[in-house]
Amino acid sequence: MATALKRILSFKEAPIVFLILVVALLCGVFVPNFLTAANLVNILSQSATVGIMAIGITLVIISGSGGIDLSAGSILGVSSIVMAMTIIPPELYRDTAAMLVLPNDYWVIFKALVFCMGVGMFCGFLNGAMVAWVGLPPFIATLAMMTAARGLAAYISAGIPTYGLPTSLVWVGQNSLWFVPVPVALMIALAVIVHIILTRTTYGMSLLAVGGNRETSRFCGMNVKGTLISVYVICGLFAAVGGVILSARSNQAHPDAGIGYELSAISAAVLGGTSMMGGSGGVLGAVLGAVFLSLIQNPINLLNIPVAYMKPIMGALIVIAVLLDQWRKKQSIGD
Amino acid sequence: MAEAIEARKAHTDGPAVWPWKIYDACGIWFWVVVFALVFSRLSPYFLNYRNFSNIFRQASIFAIMATGMTLVVISGGIDLSVGSVVSFTSAVLGVVWRDTENIYLALAAAMAVGIVTGIANGLLAGYCRMPPFIATFGLMSAGAGFAFALTPSSIGDFPAWFEKLGNDRIRILSHAVPVPVIIMFAVAVVFMLFLDARRFGLRIFAVGGNENGARMAGVNVPKLKLAIYTINGALASFAGIILCSRIRSSYPGIGLDMEMDVIASSVIGGASLVGGEGRIFGAVGGAVFICMIQNILNLMGVYPFMQKIVTGVFIVLAVFMNEFRSRRA
Question: Is residue A113 within 8 Å of B268, Cβ to Cβ?
């Protein structure tokens, strides 16, 4: 029994799986309409945007030395605005908030997606350059990017949200493949790919090494600066993908989209067992963390608890989850 | 003890060539003066006593919070909850005042918010050894939620003497100095003396520089962290009270996103987020620097969305200039 427990506790995803099960069980018993297929699928698709951002942020946190990306939410905002403005002609979105019916011009949509991800990767590259080449603390570099990118999003859109994306783009956010919603399928696919890269490739190994001990990795001949920059670029890219999904789901691009998402994504990563010290962590845990965050919001909505109490409950649960994780580490390192 | 203080001074002062020595001693204030001179060419209304007393009055709230934040950052931690503490303090102050009409009780309850939050942060970060980013993030969510749960609206009609705390000016050397600015300097001087000359301050530097080493040298690290986070929470509440007094009302969303500006002030002022480094007067200078940038952008009539971009660029610039100093030293 004891060895079985030890074996379970040796997985860093164990606490978050345990918490998800406990919360789901309690909700299933006490909250009416919780255990319906529609509601459970809804929880998953709500977690997709934060989950995809959390994958990128996990990589940044793993890269160590205070690695963190506060700008992901703002990058989401600016890249989704760029995407919508590429598709929708300015003379249409400036003067009307009415639903437009735009043709599915695939070339334009392709161009928009490329611009959107390009902007995300460029912002990420600037973050990485400030961190790796200039040597700024990641907290400050990405804090500045958070302010600047949010300003940029509001500046180029004049603060006006853009409604009415083409139906083929909205399909990405609102439809299902068989019974899995497209955002969820995308989140799972990305998580699996990044998980394999992180655990099975040289790049992943060197990222873990750089996060564990930057000096030693440098002396071993690894390209530390290149690895750092690549991580921030990936994080920017995933924030842009999150932006595509969020705007496709809500059929609009809003310059204020994604405010506070970076903090949710960071807590999702930490809930999933990634250490803020860097050098250890996993993306599957981060996705589970994002699912947990939307899972605990759901009963609060279903039970009509005032929104003001949602944040305190979430805060308390995050603290509990991290305390559990510390207990797990103590148990598994114990002997 | 005296040797340790000397050793730390030798470390922070850098090479003993006099222009550099003065530059290092000034820290961010050097750049505050340089940019003030540059900005005075951009707007005729910038460089005068009236405008600067306004900038300092705006900065005083951030500077008081940044004083506490600097202690936390020196110890190798971070506190994301200060903005929520300001919001919650404001809500509690307003509600207790509205319901009891007793301003002393309201002030005591408002201060209790920061102290209790600080103690909770300190227990989680110190005794439970949680990463401070997550511990304080948890309390940040809690505080922001509770503030709106308590009252969603703005409450005013405070007694006249309380409103004077934030709005009055006192004549010093024939200049009318706003009260919050005087409070800001008083707080900064007190904590600077504590940090540079007392065992408590030295221990904070020790913990930030090498936590294990400090523990083995006999520092009670959890207790020290509890003290630091409690002080930081109390100062955040204090700043929140002054802010309420200045705007003559309380509002539960008042401290939204404040923590980012406060942390930026600390870091611009020379604090290192890795720990073990930081200056109180630098943090005050950082707050003044940020408020000065926002002031000149307003005077120049820059589009508000554009202001955000420029502020971000200046934060990076300020921290970069600071890196330049500490690397050379």
Answer: no
